[in-house]
Amino acid sequence: MEIANITINGQPVSAQVGSTILQAARQAGIDIPTLCDHPALIPIGACRICLVEVTGQRTLITACTFPITEGMVVQTESPQVVMARKLILDLLFSERNHFCPFCEASGNCELQNLGYRYGVDHWLYSTFTKAFPIDATHKHLFMEHNRCILCGRCERACGEIVANHTLGLRNRGNASMIHCDASLPWGESTCISCGTCLQVCPTGAISDKRSAFMGRDVQTESTKTTCNRCSIGCGMEVVTRAGNVLRIKSDWDAEVNGGRLCEYGRFDPLYDPRDRITSPLLRRKGRLEPVSWDEALQSVADRVGAAQGQEIGVLTSSNSTNEALYLLNKLFCQELGAKNVGLLNSVAPKLFDQPRGSLADIVAGDVIMVVGTDPVKDQPVASFFVKRSVDKGARLIVVDDGENGLAPFAYMNLRIADIGRAIEIAHRAAQPIVLYGVGASEAAVKSLKALQGKARFVTLEPGVNTFAAVTFGFNNGFKPSAAKVLYASLGEQDWSGGDMLKAVDKGAFVVVQASFASPLTEKADVVLPTAIWSERAGSLTNTEGRVQKVNKAVEPRGGAKPDWEILSLLAEKLGRKLGASLDEIAALAVQEIKYKENQR
Amino acid sequence: MKLEDVDLLKEFTSEQIAKLDEIISKHRGKPGGLIPVLEEAQVSLEYLPIGIQKRIAKGLNLPLSRVYGVVTFYSFFTMTPRGKHTVRVCLGTACYVRGGKAIAEKLEKEFGIKEGETTPDRMFTLETVRCLGACGLGPVVIIDEDVHGRIKPGKVREILSQYN
Which fold has domain A281-347+466-599? Predict the structure, then answer.
């Protein structure tokens, strides 16, 4: 790594050759204002607000695009620079409606902040001569073109980060505006509602319908946590105000997703229409009645404690935390001898014993095979990586029998039976990547093994914490008829019971640990209300086997408790000591996951 | 036949579409191929409706939003059909003071269309321009390549009759 030494505002700064003035300045803690630049995007030098003075350069230059060279002398706030920035701000403020008091972004606006910083206290030029319509056709977002400064961040995020290319810039001069596809209303466009544009917009041009005008940054709190909607485990921030969740932001620093989130992760959790269960319920004389936790758990403990190991059935959702899965396994399987355990979703076939490939590998591939899995539907963030790779020239081969969301981007679509052709192509590639999921047939898995050592394999597990659930043995064929006492840890999962529940013995004692009322909770003998994603702490293991922390953003609704806590209390009632605090249980759970991973 | 082809065939002949595909394949995979494709397509098809843009986007493996962005950026490209003849009225300062505005109004009335539009029979497209560099001849009207100088509203119909 070659280092260049430069001087910024008289301060010596060393940075890697090839980095821009802006990057070097940021490393040294020197602030250069930006609008069109965003750390996650390729700089284009369009807004000119990052202009700096470099000795020997004929004009002011954009810090975001100009690479540093040895001995460079930079002034970031010289009178000439400040004058130029003020002019740019005057022009930006005059172009459209930047009248802050009625803007959603007021207080969090990058343009407004710069206005204050450079003392733009009046309009130098006449303001917004052209009015644009507002596009509110989108389900979650609205676009206020009059607040737009045409920095192009949203358009670039849509292309560079998500590789969806819905947003674009149209027309020119004062008629320029952001458009979707070919001037379609946003709600009818190819937009996949990932919300990345919302997160990069520096002004109030793109706002979230649900949380608009509900709190500025200084009035809200933010909790970093891990998304629990699929097995990718994206890092995200939950923005709350006075104990209510306002919105979800992606975490730019998260290793797995690096600022990406999808509709399932960003918006869907905020619009859950299902009814919460807020108190433990116990069936008395045929009716479910609210009771205290103590009473509910005691009745569960009585029945579970009296049952033989082979009479106990345990079903769990992969939405449970590592800690809950650990306790379920420890309490029911190891302490009480239950063997009839099951998982509410299917599991991807196991290819190799070695640790799984990471999602970051996807971008390194020149041939990407997607076998028996549809990330567009199930793990959208993984599909962003695939589509980005395709944009950069990778060839995508979709091997799937059903409809596949990635099929339109593929240069070859094959049926699973024809996987041999894809494997031939992968053999000739420099770095083939194989993404596979539950749809990969036995024969397909067998033929994929031919690529061992050549390709990198990325598993896309269905469900959420499937990796940990499998580690703790929740993958056996569950036999509903054998269960006299059924403990179903549903969490947030929508599961009506289906054929499985019909096969459960009529006289069986059914305990349901769930967040939402469902047909299953209505049939239960005891219902234990469970905290949802925003209300629980613990950890989740993603499809790569990466253990990530989940933090509590708000207090559980009513009497709901986190899944692991319910099991820990139940263990206590049964006279088993399985760890008292979350930290203790988490340490044990993670230790076991790591241990079993090494064993595999 | 694909649905999108059926839609295109309502406006274009199958020869024109084959020509378009040829243009696309000539520039496929080359960096910066979009503008040459649009230019050649505009020349041979006369205008670039969304259906054509979609075909170009698909053929060049580019997002439709980008193709549309380029088409709307350059005034050379048009998304609506153009007339057989293009009538450009100068509204530059010299022509304006010598009655260019009246000529433009007369033409609008004559054609029954507004500036930037095309007559329903697709004979004439009316445009206004800012100075053609022939101020001495003002007011000036250019029809296709022919310059008509010092015209009066009364002479408009006579001049137009030369074009059909």
Answer: Rossmann fold (3.40.50)
**Confidence at residue A161, expressed as pLDDT on a 0 to 100 scale:** 93
Could you tell me the pTM of the whole model?
0.89
Q: How close B59 gets to chain A, by Cα (Å)? A: 13
- A278-295 per-position pLDDT tens digit: 999 999 988 999 999 999
Per-residue pLDDT at A37: 94
Q: Amino acid identity of A37?
A: D
What local confidence, expressed as pLDDT, does residue A48 receive?
94
Q: Are residues B100 and B69 in the same domain?
A: no
Minimum CA–CA partner of A155 in chain B: B65
Cα–Cα distance for residue pair A302/A291, rounded to 1 Å: 16
CB contact under 8 A, B65 and A165: yes
Is B12 inside a domain boundary? yes
Asked if A165 has any chain B CB less than 8 Å from its own CB, the reply is yes
Q: Where are the domains of chain A?
A: 3-77, 125-271, 281-347+466-599, 359-459
A171 touches chain B (CB under 8 A): yes
- The reply to whether B64 falls in a domain is yes
What is d(CA A65, CA A288) in angstroms, rounded to the nearest whole number?
A: 65
Q: Which fold has domain A125-271?
A: Alpha-Beta Plaits (3.30.70)
**Chain B within 8 Å of A181 (Cβ-Cβ)?**
yes
Q: Which domain-ending residue is among B33, B48, B73?
A: B73
Chain A touched by B72 (CB under 8 Å): yes
Whether B79 is in a domain gets the answer: no
Q: Whose CA is closest to B19, among B41, B35, B4, B1? A: B41
Residue A588, both tokens? 């044990």
**Token representation of residue A18:** 């090839």
- Dump pLDDT digits (tens) for A221-251: 999 999 999 999 999 999 999 999 999 999 9
- Whether A390 and chain B come into contact, CB under 8 Å, resolves to no
Amino acid, single-letter form, for residue A487 = Y
User: Rounded to whole angstroms, how far apart are CA atoms A369 and A357?
Assistant: 14
Residue B7: the pLDDT is: 78
- Pairing label, strands A206-208, A141-144: antiparallel
Domain A3-77 has CATH 3.10.20.740: yes
Cβ-proximal residues to B56 (8 Å cutoff; 6+ apart), any chain: B20, B24, B34, B37, B38, B41, B48, B62, B67
pLDDT band at A583 (very low <50, low <70, confident <90, very high): confident
**Per-residue confidence (pLDDT) for residue A46, from 0 to 100:** 92
Q: Is the predicted pLDDT of residue A496 greater than 80, yes or no? A: no
Nearest chain A alpha carbon to B77: A171
Number of domains in chain B: 2
* E-only strand ranges, A171-286: 177-180, 206-208, 221-226, 235-241, 244-250, 281-284
Domain coverage including residue B134:
85-160
